[in-house]
Specification:
The protein has 17 helices and 14 strands. By secondary structure, it is α/β, with parallel strands linked by helices. Pfam families: Aminotran_3.
Length: 494
């Protein structure tokens, strides 16, 4: 088994290479956590939350942070507690807090001008907008996706992809990008009637999460609390495989489960054609909010090819998985897609700071103002993304994450193996720090996360019983050791 052979190999590799250290990039990063209060959150954090609650609902608060004092992989809270942060603002911090190189960016004229003169990008872009995109976001554009639309957040990125897919689908039905709209189409759409408002749909998967706006929420299938009381489009949902772990001991069962899901998925695509054809299929490479659910590269490639076979555009939601945490810059790079099999759209946000969609040129709308809003993203965040991409490349942080992922896999395999009656289903993609494991009950999971915080480690849950790891790309072997010790101690106390 991989976990049995990995520790020695990982340790040899660690000894033989000159390892990247987060402190080389972030000299002021703390060496270890420090908890000053009897519980986290402490009194100052709770008081700050109470003040916020007079204006905004604070029931989702974990703690109130002191971002000025946070550094690298460590989050400092209002009470002065220093926590190793392996949740990273729900997978949204790429390289750490207060990275000096990013602070220097913030002092530049370009950044200051972008920060205080936010433009309506679709109509009044900065004169250097093309250069900023070409030297930043476009350098990491997925293969075959040569166009880009920037947007405000992950939800709006997916909404933008949905709209683009619907427009491209109808243009294909009309037979030409140059085909105009009939008077009937123009008039009926103002009443939300067909033919101007077509009966098309987006297919998503059980446990998937794609956002909280109306279209993205209709495609979200992770938790009822996200959707209850909100009107939704009647769009189809397909099953996602429930894999059995360890993978090496359940090969045939998992193949059968993936085959079952693929067969049902294709049946749904076929059946939908009679009522509301599926214009787009959307999938996360790892179903993150829904419990960190995985499937094989062969499964995802089959999803893509089946969508293409039935005329549906294919959207890969890389909002949480993008920017290197899975050991490749984009998680879908591991699927083995061949030329001509690339996704039609890849959506991004979170670690990238700027949100948006990469897409194929042929899915650009046939007329202006169709995929448009006031902000269309944020030049300040685009500059931030460009600088982070440079740091990731200059420090080879994707490769660093692959190597750290092996060490993390070995350490977690060792620790979790000693608590098998409490935790199960340790999972992650090979050579990735994007990992998770389950508890036997939700109550045990929640108690564990609280104990970890009291020991100086900020973690997060997902799904019904899972804990997920979302460290930054500068997370390394020294952090793994701290994390493993805290996990072991917390599990012993449950």
């Amino acid at each position: 088994m991989r976990t049995a052979a990995l520790p020695a190999r990982a340790l040899r590799a660690a000894a033989q290479r000159r390892a990247f250290s987060s402190r080389s990039l972030i000299p002021n990063e703390p060496l270890k956590p420090q908890v000053l209060t009897s519980a986290v959150p402490g009194p100052a954090s709770k008081a700050a939350s109470a003040e916020i609650d007079k204006i905004q609902d604070s029931r989702t608060h974990v703690l109130c942070a002191d971002y000025a004092k946070s550094s690298g992989n460590y989050l400092v809270d209002a009470d002065g507690n220093t926590l190793l942060d392996v949740f990273a603002q729900i997978s949204s911090i790429a390289i750490g807090y207060n990275v000096p190189q990013m602070i220097e960016l913030a002092k530049t004229d370009d950044f200051i001008t972008a920060a205080i003169n936010r433009p309506a990008l679709g109509s009044f872009p900065p004169k250097d907008w093309a250069k900023w995109l070409e030297t930043g976001l476009m350098t990491v554009a997925p293969k075959g996706l040569d166009n880009l639309v920037t947007s405000l957040c992950g939800s709006s990125a997916n909404e933008t992809a949905f709209k683009a897919a619907f427009m491209a689908y109808r243009q294909r039905e009309r037979g030409s990008r140059d085909a105009g709209f009939t008077e009937e189409e123009l008039e009926s759409c103002m009443l939300n009637h067909s033919p101007g408002t077509p009966k098309l749909s987006v297919l998503s998967f059980k446990s998937g999460f794609h956002g909280r706006l109306f279209g993205s929420l209709s495609a979200t299938r992770s938790k009822a609390i996200h959707k209850i009381d909100i009107p939704a489009f009647d769009w189809p949902v397909a099953p996602f495989p429930a894999l059995q772990y360890p993978l090496s001991e359940n090969i045939e069962a998992n193949k059968a489960e993936e085959a079952r899901c693929l067969a049902e998925y294709e049946e749904i695509l076929i059946a939908s054609k009679a009522t509301q054809p599926v214009a787009a299929v959307i999938i996360e490479p790892i179903l993150s909010e829904g419990g960190d659910r995985h499937a094989s590269p062969e499964f995802f490639r089959a999803l893509r090819l089946t969508a293409k076979k039935h005329g549906a555009f294919f959207i890969v939601d890389e909002v949480q998985t993008g920017a290197g945490a899975t050991g490749t810059f984009w998680a879908h790079e591991k699927w083995g897609l061949q030329e001509g099999e690339e996704p039609d759209f890849v959506t991004f946000s979170k670690k990238m700071q700027q949100a948006g969609i990469f897409h194929k040129p042929e899915t650009r709308p046939n007329a202006p103002y169709r995929n448009y809003n006031t902000w269309m993203g944020d030049p300040m965040r685009t500059l931030q993304a460009r600088e982070m991409i440079k740091i990731i490349r200059d420090n080879n942080l994707v490769e660093h994450t692959r190597k750290t992922g092996d060490v993390l896999t070995a350490a977690l395999g060792d620790v979790l193996g000693r608590h098998q009656g409490l935790v199960l289903n340790h999972r992650g993609q090979n050579e990735a720090t994007f990992q998770a494991f389950d508890f036997v009950t939700a109550a045990k999971r929640d108690a564990f996360v609280a104990k970890m915080r009291s020991k100086g480690v900020q973690m997060g849950g997902c799904g019904e019983v899972a804990v997920r790891l979302r460290p930054t790309l500068t997370f390394g072997e020294s952090h793994v050791a701290i994390l493993a010790d805290a996990i072991d101690a917390s599990l012993k106390e449950l």
